[in-house]
Amino acid sequence: MKLLFDSEGKVNYDKIDKDTTVEDMLKAIDIFLNSNPLPCDDCEESCCKKAWSVEMDNICVNRISNWNDEAASDFVRQRLVKKRNYYREFDQFVLDKENNCHFITNENYCTIYEQRPIICRLYICIDKSFRYNVVRELIGSTYLQALIFEDEIRNKVLTEDLIKVYNRNPAVFAKGYDIALKDIFNYAEEEGWLYDDEIDEL
Ligand code: SF4
Ligand code: SF4
After folding, report:
1. What's the domain range around 34?
2. Domains in the chain: how many in total?
3. What sign results for the dihedral spanned by CA atoms 107, 111, 114, 119?
4. What would the pLDDT profile of 16-43 be if each residue is shown by its tens digit?
5. Rounded to a whole number, what is the distance in angstroms from the first to the last CA of the chain?
6. How many CB atoms lie within 10 A of CB 33?
7. Atom 3 of ligand 1 has which residue's CA nearest to it?
8. Contact, 46 vs 104, CB < 8 A?
9. What are the tens digits of pLDDT across the range 131-176?
10. Coil vs helix vs strand at 161
11. Out of the domains of life, which is the source (predicted)?
12. How far is the CA of 34 from the centre of ligand 2 (A)?
């Protein structure tokens, strides 16, 4: 997968193969932004210092917690709050903050840059194509929901049936972002987030 400007001047990708993973997309974004850097130095206010939510995913929390279940649970309790995702109708965790992200310094340096949330890695503040935005949102929703599910599996007494339902999400207890996009799309279809004919357009 490669990112490019399409004929409408929007950020788009060339194609998704059957084995293209989330990690491939993240690498494509990094390569694209290296060649097309965002104007952060001229930006009046860092996007990491705004009131909007910093949505947290399971891989980010597990990495920050060194893959320790207890530390991950403590991080969730101490640093995050639940917020409803009304678009997808599930709860997700966001940083418990007013304005500045907990991890931004006065010099606009992200102190968890290598482990930052996937929503930060997928963020490009210029016009993007519809299909790019759809893929970005589906990846984000899958990993955001995975944090809620992992937290409940760790800290609540759940029925076997509910655990099975949670484990259908391909990101639950994943070790990274190397999940095939087709698995994300299949899960999104099962969840009613994506219709079969829409997959063909991605
Ligand atoms: S990513 Fe975009 S919005 Fe954020 S600081 Fe850079 S230019 Fe500004
Ligand atoms: S985690 Fe890092 S990149 Fe993401 S909002 Fe916070 S400071 Fe910015």
Report:
1. 3-199
2. 1
3. negative
4. 998 999 999 999 999 999 999 998 888 8
5. 12
6. 13
7. 47
8. yes
9. 999 999 999 999 999 999 999 999 999 999 999 999 999 999 999 9
10. helix
11. Bacteria
12. 18
